[in-house]
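Input record (Table S2, row 341):
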Amino acid sequence: MIDKINELLRQVEEFKPKAASEVEEFRIRILGKKGALNHLMEEFKSVAPELKRELGQQLNKLKTTATERINTLREELSATAAAEASHVEDMTRPGSASELGSRHPISLVRNQIVEVFTRLGYTVAEGPEIEDDWHVFSALNFPPEHPARDMQDTFFIEKNPDILLRTHTSSIQVRTMERQKPPIRVICPGRVFRNEAISYRAHCIFHQIEGLYIDEGVSFADLKQSLLYFAKELFGEQARIRMRPSYFPFTEPSAEVDVSCNLCGGKGCNVCKGTGWLEIMGCGMVDPNVLRSCNIDPEKYSGFAFGMGVERIAMLKYGVKDLRLYFENDVRFLHQFDSAL
Ligand code: DAH
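Output record (3,4-dihydroxyphenylalanine complex):
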């Protein structure tokens, strides 16, 4: 029995718990009702009287040591738990970085285009996305039967009088000329809508930038120089442009503008389909009928206008082959423009 008592005393001394729950388990095992101490007390009843004195003392010693040890351990553990709970973070530690957003490629290109024309003295003009027939078609010299008015291309909101989603930013030209007297120099970015099936090269919502310059004596040569300057600013000093005769109801003469392919340097590649040229916009001299519709005297004033698709320019600039990527907002795509200007 003395060996048992000594063994328990040794256990009490060596006991090194990590948590308060271990202390409680230990207390139950040693001092609990069915614990080791009570067992020994039972045994003690039947020991020989001559041994009772020594064993009794040892049993008492076990009881007090165990009780004291358990009490101190309890205090120690609750003190560390309290210290942990009130632990203050190291304020000098660098914080965890939160991910910064970046501009959408369409915004990047839009801003860049606007910035080039701002340097030429243009100011930004905007207009409503929901328009009437006058500003989108009639004032722009569209004959009543023109196919662009067809239900297939235009999203109509109301018929008679027609209210629709603008199909191009040329409507802002009209609104500006109605409001302002020449000289006028505006650049008009905005969203446009067309009833088209979505594919890698077409979308029902896209962005255009319109330009308009009206003053006395504005010529086609001015238009050409302005656009050449623009092409060099956007695609690099080596960029060249060419103009091909075209037709738009609101300009006469009209032209389609191509820029030399910046990927192959004009030699011909699969992006420019072997031609060395990429189509970037439509332009022309503002038709006198359009000036008249906006109460500007075509005898006194002349001007030029141009319009381009932002998605198209962005595709050419960044070599993006599928227009839908601009609308899906897949971060794997967007992150590639993090460091772009
Ligand atoms: N509005 C035309 C379009 O949506 C683009 C355009 C062409 C605008 C020639 C112009 C222009 O101002 O002169 O396709």
